[in-house]
Amino acid sequence: MTKRLWIGALLLVTACAGPAIEESKKNELKARWQLFVMDSPDWPEARTWWLAQEPAAVDLLSLNLLQAMVSDHVQYRKEMGARAGLVDFTDEAPDPERLWRRAQAELVSLPDLSLDVLIESLRRSDADVKDLMTSTFARIGLPALSRLEQVLADESEQQPRIVATHAIGRIGAEDPNAMAEAQRVLIVRLNTDADWAVRGEAARVLGRYPDAVGALANALASDDDRFVRLKAAESLGILGGEHSERALVAALPTAQQRNDLELLRALGQELRRLSGRRLPNDPKVWQEYLSERYGTPR
Length: 298
Hints:
Layout: H1 3-15, H2 23-37, H3 43-51, H4 55-83, H5 99-109, H6 111-120, H7 127-140, H8 142-153, H9 158-174, H10 179-192, H11 196-205, H12 213-222, H13 226-239, H14 242-250, H15 252-257, H16 261-275, H17 283-294
Helix pairs in contact: 1-2, 1-4, 2-3, 4-5, 4-6, 5-7, 7-9, 8-9, 9-10, 9-11, 10-11, 11-13, 12-13, 12-14, 13-14, 13-16, 14-17
């Protein structure tokens, strides 16, 4: 059995395990699902038919698409590893149009159907799956943002909230229509979230938002968690510019007083990279640099 048929057969069993669907309908779903697995030109018509069925059947479509995306993506990663000589894995060359890519495209095109199962998948701990989910949310764009914000509002589980923060960061960075709203949500989390890990992730992803310099400078100066301050410093270094450099220099005295060696190293590294000068981590030296380069603060 080829890899594609094996994946298809596995998914068909999963799709039809639900007790709420009659046996005759299960057979119809199996036949139509096979059209998707085999990339049949008849799939668009089959999809239209499927979406007109009862809610239990429609839910199975979204679950199957999610599982197809995840299962084939795992296989794809193995193949890429084999090509790089990272693992001993021999298999046929991947299809030009991978099953996981087609499944992802289906999920992206049907956000009203797919967002529930995608949100639920945030609880998975596998790093590759988390990356796949965030890329899928990014492709959905603005419609996914409000749902991810709801995940952030539920403080009962840390892991989904961290992944949701990362996904929101990608949505705003990749969808110009969503950038302002994504930035608003991320800054709210950076300023107010009780979980240091969520604040730290917000600080990290805001490194792709040029208008977030002020919020990052405030976090660097006042957040009570060292990890958050470190991520804010790194993001300011990514964004660069006068305001970022002034915020990095302003953080040096406090970092010295706290004997925060990790933050001191990060501040010095970012300042040296931005300025092109190999100066010591001395606040007075860097203040002189700022005056020379930018003059008196406006």
